[in-house]
Amino acid sequence: MEEYHNGSEGSFNSEEADSVVKECIESVIGGDDYNQSQVNKWTAGIVERCLTQLVKQGKPYKYMVTCAVMQKTGAGLHTANSCFWDTALDGSCTVRWENRTMYCVVSVFAVAVA
């Protein structure tokens, strides 16, 4: 994700978004073990918290956030995304977080508001 001019003013800072997402995941899931009955609550909480924290930064972006939580069972998981946008301003970041019982994959897409 480094191709999105992370340091330039006016462009999407994926490193900053990455740290926001990690904090949000930690605050929602923390040290919990995987529990199927909690997954809907966790994913909704992570998405809402990420959106709230990103919007609080006051940057001129529309954000889209996706979240997937998966139990660790040894199965494979592959994700991909593709975007057609202005790479000088728009950007994305994907965070893969895990603990001993689950994976959480969160993607943030930021589209500049002209």
UniProtKB/TrEMBL annotation:
Transmembrane segments: none annotated. One of its GO terms (cellular component) is kinetochore. It is found in: Chromosome, Centromere, Kinetochore; Cytoplasm, Cytoskeleton; Nucleus. Belongs to the dynein light chain Tctex-type family. One of its GO terms (molecular function) is dynein intermediate chain binding. Keywords: Cell cycle, Cell division, Centromere, Chromosome, Cytoplasm, Cytoskeleton, Dynein, Kinetochore, Microtubule, Mitosis, Motor protein, Nitration, Nucleus, Transport. Homodimer. The cytoplasmic dynein 1 complex consists of two catalytic heavy chains (HCs) and a number of non-catalytic subunits presented by intermediate chains (ICs), light intermediate chains (LICs) and light chains (LCs); the composition seems to vary in respect to the IC, LIC and LC composition. The heavy chain homodimer serves as a scaffold for the probable homodimeric assembly of the respective non-catalytic subunits. The ICs and LICs bind directly to the HC dimer and the LCs assemble on the IC dimer. DYNLT1 and DYNLT3 compete for association with dynein IC (DYNC1I1 or DYNC1I2). GO terms for biological process: cell division; microtubule-based movement. This is Dynein light chain Tctex-type 1. Acts as one of several non-catalytic accessory components of the cytoplasmic dynein 1 complex that are thought to be involved in linking dynein to cargos and to adapter proteins that regulate dynein function. Cytoplasmic dynein 1 acts as a motor for the intracellular retrograde motility of vesicles and organelles along microtubules. Probably binds BUB3 as part of transport cargo. Required for the efficient progression through mitosis. It comes from Anabas testudineus (Climbing perch). InterPro entries: Tctex-1-like, Tctex-1-like_sf.
